[in-house]
Amino acid sequence: MRSLLIMILPALLLASGCSVYKIDIQQGNTLEAEQVEELQTGMSREQVAYLLGTPLIQDPFHANRWDYVYSFKPGGGEPKSQHLTLHFDNGTLSKIDRDQFRDYKELYSPTNEGLPDTASQSSGGGNTGPAPPRTPPGGGLPTP
What we know:
- 22% of the residues lie in helices and 24% in strands.
- It is α+β, with helices and mostly antiparallel strands.
- The chain has a domain at 22-104: 2-Layer Sandwich (Beta-lactamase Inhibitory Protein, Chain:B, domain 1).
- Strands 1, 2, 3, 4 and 5 form a five-stranded antiparallel β-sheet that branches.
- A hairpin with a 6-residue loop joins strand 3 and strand 4 (80-89).
- The longest helix is centred in the N-terminal third of the chain and has 15 residues, at 2-16.
């Protein structure tokens, strides 16, 4: 029992001081408001696909319906989503359902939680580029 405690205790102490970085997760079609505003009823499927790209969901049971779905879950935050549904009749766009559509720019705001703040760090002397090559004493070729 004592040896088990000795093995577990360092792991618990080490884990308690570490934080876990959670990544941002994006999935789906990224649509901006400017693209969606260009949609007009009467457009062909090809015109819509050229403007918005192919939809994420193509339901085989509803061939006349295209769903553009995008979801964004910031690391450690609440998920956000947008949904645009297009309906076609005889190959032309007949209805645009924007009820659940929000601009991609409103949804996407990546987080930097858990990352060091590099903007506030000073690099000393204001030089942010790579260091120049060093020339050895007595001439010769520079070394990196």
